[in-house]
Automatic annotation (TrEMBL):
<comment type="similarity">
    <text>Belongs to the ABC transporter superfamily.</text>
</comment>
<keyword id="KW-0547">Nucleotide-binding</keyword>
<feature type="domain" description="ABC transporter">
    <location>
        <begin position="9"/>
        <end position="243"/>
    </location>
</feature>
<keyword id="KW-0813">Transport</keyword>
<dbReference type="InterPro" id="IPR050086">
    <property type="entry name" value="MetN_ABC_transporter-like"/>
</dbReference>
<dbReference type="InterPro" id="IPR003439">
    <property type="entry name" value="ABC_transporter-like_ATP-bd"/>
</dbReference>
<keyword id="KW-0067">ATP-binding</keyword>
<dbReference type="InterPro" id="IPR003593">
    <property type="entry name" value="AAA+_ATPase"/>
</dbReference>
<dbReference type="InterPro" id="IPR017871">
    <property type="entry name" value="ABC_transporter-like_CS"/>
</dbReference>
<dbReference type="Pfam" id="PF00005">
    <property type="entry name" value="ABC_tran"/>
</dbReference>
<protein>
    <submittedName>
        <fullName>Amino acid ABC transporter ATP-binding protein</fullName>
    </submittedName>
</protein>
<dbReference type="GO" id="GO:0005524">
    <property type="term" value="F:ATP binding"/>
</dbReference>
<dbReference type="InterPro" id="IPR030679">
    <property type="entry name" value="ABC_ATPase_HisP-typ"/>
</dbReference>
Length: 247
């Protein structure tokens, strides 16, 4: 699992408000290509908002976010360019319920990327095989388990050929027996060198896969370190307190 010197995401002095509520404060974060970062922290600390800012599902008001050399600003061309390189998987899979698994995976490649249908189907089947559910291609999301639906969501995202994947608590809506199958898929992606930012409280995953763990509280990055140091020698009291609650 190689980490390159090339910068994938550069966030500098970034601040965001919801109205008067200062949700993200002075965020500075550089992510190199090939990094696998786990973000943890108490509920409401701004984790989702931070990763949503990276593909501009949320707008920041100060500082800068540059993804693959493109700055996220009011220029919609830039926003499109960044979104074409960044895939996102949510807690609630957000599949289209009225489309089959295969159609979920081919819709955006065909209509947004203008990929020929035959190629889009081949690509979808390739990624459905990768997440180990090619046999479910003709089913509707409602006919699948939560773990299978989340793997479809990951496959659907991969069909857009992203260079960076963002995960927002992808396993927290799943029954325990389904968590592993989704984490295994994510581990495989990591092993292939995908640049990943994952909001998760799966600390086993963090220890096995992350090269860096970030702890957020009250809209700030409080502490970050490589996993062994982070878990065994947390520096700040907030981090110690958080870890004592979840481990
Ligand atoms: P986390 O993912 O760490 O639980 P969030 O990023 O979802 O935290 O939320 C951070 C804070 O911002 C919370 O206090 C939340 O209530 C608030 N918040 C999130 N989204 C909005 C919104 N669209 N409008 C106003 N406040 C929001
Ligand atoms: Mg969240």
């Amino acid at each position: 699992m190689e980490i390159s010197d090339e910068v994938a995401i550069e966030i500098s002095d970034m601040n965001k408000w919801f109205g008067t509520f200062h949700v993200l404060r002075d965020i500075n974060l550089t992510v190199n290509r090939g990094e696998r970062i786990v973000i943890c922290g108490p509920s409401g600390s701004g984790k989702s908002t931070l990763i949503r800012c990276i593909n501009r599902l949320e707008e920041h008001q100060a500082g800068s976010i540059v993804v693959d050399g493109t700055e996220l600003n009011s220029d919609l061309k830039n926003v499109d360019k960044v979104r074409s390189e960044v895939g996102m998987v949510f807690q609630h899979f957000n599949l289209f319920p009225h489309l089959t698994v295969l159609e979920n995976c081919t819709l955006a490649p065909i209509w947004v990327r203008k990929v020929p249908r035959k190629e889009a189907v081949e690509r979808a089947m390739h990624f459905l095989e990768k997440v180990k559910i090619p046999d479910q291609a003709m089913k509707y999301p409602g006919q699948l388990s939560g773990g299978q639906q989340q793997r479809v969501a990951i496959a659907r995202s991969l069909c857009m050929m992203p260079r960076i994947m963002l995960f927002d608590e992808p396993t927290s809506a799943l029954d325990p027996e389904m968590i592993k199958e989704v984490l295994d898929t994510m581990i495989e992606l990591a092993e292939e060198g995908m640049t990943m930012l994952c909001v998760t409280h799966e600390m086993g995953f963090a220890q096995a896969v992350a090269n860096r763990v970030i702890f957020m509280a009250d809209g700030q990055i409080v502490e970050q370190n490589e996993p062994h140091e982070f878990f065994n020698n947390p520096k700040s009291e907030r981090t110690q307190q958080f870890l004592s609650q979840i481990i």
